[in-house]
Amino acid sequence: MATSTFFLSPWAARLLSVLRMVAGLLMVFHGTQKLFGWPPSDHAGDASGLMLVAGILEFGGGLLLLIGLFTRPVAFVLSGLMAVAYFMAHAPQHVLPIVNQGELAVLYCFVFLYLAAAGPGPWSLDAARSHTSPVV
């Protein structure tokens, strides 16, 4: 019996890079909101203590993920950051993420954990540094 291939299968490596870039860019915005007050929100720009640490990790880690540099360790650290954010800020409100508004933290946690395991994909500085030929 012939095996069929899903039409997006040839794009899997490239889409891994796109996932990394989008997650990194969105994390940068979380960091800029905490550190610089942009984009504006209720708690924008008033980072101190743990929020300052979170803002620095989100901004710097997001930039590194966006360009695909040190992807695995950065993604692992950000996965931990999102787990801490969930258990400190959301879980005390309710056990279910949909109720405690923590579903984004949970999703980020597991996307970053996946990136730590899967790597940056071909469109990254990590791939360029390791002299692997990028998929075009």
From TrEMBL:
Going by the UniProt record, its keywords in alphabetical order are:
Cell membrane, Membrane, Transmembrane, Transmembrane helix
Kinase listed as a keyword: no
Write down what this protein is called. Answer: DoxX family protein
| The family this protein is said to belong to | Belongs to the DoxX family.
Organism expressing this protein natively: Hymenobacter swuensis DY53
Organism lineage reads as:
Bacteria, Pseudomonadati, Bacteroidota, Cytophagia, Cytophagales
Pfam families tied to this protein: DoxX (PF07681)
List the membrane topology term(s). Multi-pass membrane protein
The answer to whether the entry has keyword Cell membrane is yes
- GO CC annotations on file: plasma membrane
What are the subcellular locations of this protein? Cell membrane
Per its UniProt record, what InterPro entries does this chain match? DoxX, DoxX-like_oxidoreductase
For this UniProt entry, what is the primary localization, expressed as one broad class? membrane
Transmembrane segment boundaries? 12-29, 49-67, 74-92, 104-123
